[in-house]
Amino acid sequence: MDLVESELLEIKKSLIDNVLAYLDTGIFENRTNVAYVQAYSKVLELADQDENGKYLYDYYKNIINNYTEKVVKKELLQLRGLELLKKLAFRWQNHKMLVYWMRKIFYYLDRYYIKNSNLPILFLAGVTIFKVQVFDQIRNALRNALIDQINSERNGGYIDINTIKETLLCFTQLGCDKFTIEKGKDNEGDRLLWTGSPSLIIYHEEFEKAFLEKSKEFYISKSQQWITSMSCPEYLHAANQAFVNEERRLQQYLDPSTKDPLMKMVVDELVVNNAKIVSEMPGTGCEDMLKHDKRDELKLMFSIFRKHEPSLNNITAKLSFYVETRGALIVNDQKLHEDAIEFTKRLLIFKAEIDGMIEYSFENHSLFQRCRDMSFQNFMNKCPYSAQYIASYCDHEMKKGLKGVSEQDTESRLNSLIKLFVCLHDRDVFIRYYTRFLAKRLLDETSVSDEAEQSMISKLKVECGHNIVSKISNMYQDKALSEQIMKDFKTQSHKGQPDGILLNVQVLRSGCWPEQTQDPCNLPNELKNCFYKFQLFYQNKHQGRNLTILSVYGNCEIGTLFCRKPFTCIVNPYQASIILLFNSTNSLTLTQIKEATRLSDNTLKSNLIPFFNPKQRLFTKQSSGKTINDDEMINLNLEFNCASLKISFLPKKVKKTEVANNEDEKAVENERKYILDSVIVRISKGRKQIKHQELITEVIRQVTHFKPQPPMIKGQIESLIQREFLARDEKDKTLYIYLP
């Protein structure tokens, strides 16, 4: 054994002492491969004898232990705070270097002796000494110093990031049991590289647990301080910066495993616990941001509250109230009730504003889209005229609004209308009015764009299904068939001009077009003869079909022969029936005109009034204004003159959309009953047996183009029971049975 000691003493003097001196001075004397090879060879010779293995292993540990205890431990125990962290980082790097060199000298032990002795490998034995002698003695001081440094940085102080990073690296590396220390290169040049699977037991137990607790205390205090001293936007900016800083710390020196618990804690303290208070800050909170359209601030609030999805409800609650409050101002404005076009324009402008906010500030998040849609539904459907007014606006767009508009802008405007349409509960009412207006446009040929018409129909089919808008498709079919019929009519001997009158007829199938109430009218013989000849032609081609003249539709062009120059009067069939009476006389009383045309008072007067327009006065009367007495004489203005040769006397359409009359309401109600009947029967037939509440829920889910109320559904269920489509179970009255 004396020989072993002497040989080891020689190794210590030639190499080990130089390594130890280098750790303190930075100067490595006699750093040659010859010295290393000689030392390794001596250990190899000594280790070949089995009885020397244990002694050599203990000697390896004693060298490291003595240096660590007498130099490193003694030094570190006297330090605190940042100085302790700096020195620890320095000594930990040195200790890994010491273990690396010692292991190189005694490497033969790892290859043979330790394999068969069930002892820790040289790397692990050397690192364990540092843990026991140094780390375990100063771990509390280390932890406190680290947390103090991090909190100092949170308060705006400067810290040595590399020192913090190396110190925390010590926590993770000391927990490893399988690793190697090798010489290699990185961005800083030659250095020792630690490779192996990290073990975070020490990091979690000795640092992370306390770090999270202290961080929680820090943010509890900070959040309360911010709430009492800052406005809502200032709090949001401070919170956002806190999230950015914590993410940076995770990238710079904290272990990635800390991310989830740390960020969850920060979210809990800055968002979850304070979202309601922050969003409701008087004068600067969410309500103020919405009111003054502060979209950037809303975007910031959204990005922060989004870290905890339920906290977004604090924003949606304010958004819902804001939308419904502003929307109510529109739908309750009595002036707008007088103007369907302006009413819908205001809705479109408001919808575009909110859509822009949802897109920019809330990134089109599904929660905010649902909130917007529900809010629009809530206030729009409180107005009984919304569906009619929007349909009237669509009619205005198709006839005038889209004239000269690019294809892209047309699509955008139609999409905006569809967005309003989907918010309606009474979609069937909209379809009813839209179909009625479309029929008028098709027959009068007043649409500015067939492409826009088809695009709108396609969008309605997407939202409602083909069956709901099937009448519209049938109307277009009739339009195409009518064009072919007129081509055939023009092949007749009169070439489509019976009695010299150019005739253009639209043949409409009954049931495919909306029913229009019209006053009975005694058409003049000139028109009757034309229609009679067309009727003979049509019935010759389609036997068994009857034609009925719809005087409420169509226009006539009638020329004047009594004026100095020829004028062309554009009138409707009712007006044509009136002015053609003056071919046989120059004066008639209102009563005489009424008897001749058989028009009602309102229809007659509304169609007569345009002829008294001072700018284009075709008739004269004694009374002023729009009043016409029954016995008042109406005279043909033989001095008639006008700047334009083609003059329209068509009655102007009143801007206000007519509110649905009792007949319309009854028709809608009956149609809804038929729909409910079919849906209830279809569901019951598929299920055979179904519970009452389940049936109600399923009907509401399947009926999409109006919102059926439970009492209405119950009424139809009772009706179906009476008609023996359904029956109640004798034992369970809430169970319905389908009767085939």
TrEMBL record:
The keyword Ubl conjugation applies. SMART domains: CULLIN, Cullin_Nedd8. It comes from the Eukaryota. Keywords: Isopeptide bond, Ubl conjugation. InterPro entries: Cullin (IPR045093), Cullin-like_AB (IPR059120), Cullin_homology (IPR016158), Cullin_homology_sf (IPR036317), Cullin_N (IPR001373), Cullin_neddylation_domain (IPR019559), Cullin_repeat-like_dom_sf (IPR016159), WH-like_DNA-bd_sf (IPR036388). Pfam families: Cullin, Cullin_AB, Cullin_Nedd8. GO terms for biological process: ubiquitin-dependent protein catabolic process. GO terms for molecular function: ubiquitin protein ligase binding. SUPFAM superfamilies: Cullin homology domain, Cullin repeat-like, Winged helix' DNA-binding domain. Residues 385-612 form the Cullin family profile domain. Belongs to the cullin family. This is Cullin family profile domain-containing protein. It comes from Stentor coeruleus.
